[in-house]
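[SOLVED] Need 3D model of a two-part complex

Original post:
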Amino acid sequence: MALDAITLSHFRNHRETRLDGARQFNLLVGENGAGKTNVLEAISLFAPGRGLRRAALAEIAGAAGPGGFSVGASLAGQPDEEALRLGTYTKAAQPGRRLVQVNGTPASAVGLGEWLAISWLTPAMDRLFADSAGARRRFMDRMALALDPAHARHAARYENALRERNRLLSDDRPPEAAWLDGIEAQMAQHGALLAQGRARTVAAVGQEIAVLPEQPFARPVLVYAAGGPAGQDAFAAALKSGRGRDRAARRSLVGPHRDELEVTMAGKNVPAASCSTGEQKAMLIAITLAHAQLAARGRPGLLLLDEVAAHLDPFRRASLFERLRSGRAQVWLTGTELGPFAEIRAEAAVWQVSGGQVERV
Amino acid sequence: MASQEIETLASALARLPGLGPRSARRVVLWLVKRRETALLQLLAALEQVRDRLVECRICGNVDTQNPCGICADPRRDQTSVCVVEDVADLWALDRAKLYTGRYHVLGGKLSAMDGVRPEDLNIGSLLERVASGGIDEVVLAMNATLEGQTTAHYLAERLEEYPLRITQLAHGLPVGGELDYLDEGTLAQALRARRPVG
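Solution:
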């Protein structure tokens, strides 16, 4: 099955937009601010979570509309197979709550992951290697979540337990040991699962990348660096023995909240953050493609590439298209002009986007 | 535009759990139409509750008698105490009429973020009940939330020194649930808590 049609209604600058007859390559072309990325964002909401802009839902509904937005998608398979319809929307009365429907029946947002595997690369992610470690932890979590929906719950529970512990430790009164025991038991349980999920994901993506050639794209080497001891019992013991030190620091100094994703460029052995802008972009593309390939096992994959082609030289661009063509995922690309897409122009579905409206070219 | 009195009533009702401004206005209208019947009954019931409702000095339940009906019931098992976070949880458990012991209401759960500390909960009175003897089992019936489980862990540790059986409600497969639909966390809990058949 693959995405066949998508509709946007009161979604940012799109009042009523319909894109039909999607192919393996789909191009959205138009000026800055035309609404190209908005289409990608709408598609990204068919993954659990907040979409590729991490935007608040209330922000998305168009100002001129009724106060809610809706996005619909239909997935087509074999000619005799019935189409699958997915929908996600908010209502004016509850603009912060996202509802989901599968074939007209209410479903959970987490359940969307069973139907589609969606990965994306946006210009906002270009700074990933130079950004804070927190941004890279979020990046790992998003990749892990696409492979295992339960990952989000462990992350949220761990985060809450960590906040509780930090609050207790920074209290002027000495914290009660039994209370800390209770909180640390929760941290250890969910923290161990969180760390395992990240380690597993990074290893799997790393394996997928390892078989790629070092050229023309800079090949990244991924290492998951744990911020605490592996395993529930070892982590619980480390928390318990570190109480005095953590209380002096007024925060928890070990645990998955100190994890790091270390990326170096293969061959050169240089940390990704010290590589050129072009090399960093190439490594990001490699990671995104590898993850998309992994995620799309057993379900249709979608790859959303925002403003990616324009920043590559023609040789690397051709190589990217070649890789995408042999990949499992359906690809959506944006650009300000058609020129860079000449090589896939003939096989692609192309839409001109302007002022929140689309026209098939 | 409604009068000041009606607006005041509607905004008071809107703050009730489960209601909102729209439902509150509907309730007000319904009551106004029945001011001689339903409204009077409601007034009388509210007054009764205000005048007579007390918190049980033993378990923290709310009732019109002190000790409450459950604590005063001689048919209830005196040796088993079930600890719950709130009165609503006690009611939920007791509606099912499956548990024959008595209860203890904590009045909340430990939360560092919300500033709820052990001394803010009815933990001292629970320890006193246990220390005074005659209790063989404490059932920890906290919610399966982060704070609920932290509280259960805390209580288990505080109760350790007493000669007691400390038990906890099982987490896992819900009745009528299908494995295929459960998330991994719930499945893992169910698997950990598996037990011999027969």
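Edit: Chain B touches chain A at residues 110-113, 118, 146-147, 149-154, 157-158, 183-185 (CB under 8 Å).
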